[in-house]
Predict the structure.
Amino acid sequence: MTMSDPIADMLTRIRNATTAKHDTVDVPSSKMKVSIADILEREGYIKGYEILEDGVRKTIRITLKYGADKNEKVINGLRRISKPGLRTYVGVEDMPKVLGGMGIAIVSTNKGVLTDKEAREQHVGGEILAFIW
């Protein structure tokens, strides 16, 4: 069965794994998902990720990050913004700030997948994929 929104599936898997206090979560791989995982690692929301190849398919294993004890989550919220049924595009002037700058927006631009801050610095707009805080 094909999936209609693989990015929403990735975010839901991460959300469910952090709620259940898992150490890792496996997500089917794609270039877009690897770019999102790279941003999450750079911004400090996850410890890291690795790409596993088991013959036919590739899988991204994401290592989740918690506070001093496992009760403190680093990722408090994930929200998919642009959906297959309703795409959301913004220019650089209208780039949103998540929780007044406390979170990040992941934006797909013509220069690659960037955070809202990087998109403002490079002066590009694009499709807002998700908010993370």
User: Anything to note?
Assistant: The chain has a mean pLDDT of 93. The first helix runs from residue 6 to 19. The first strand starts at residue 24 and ends at 28.
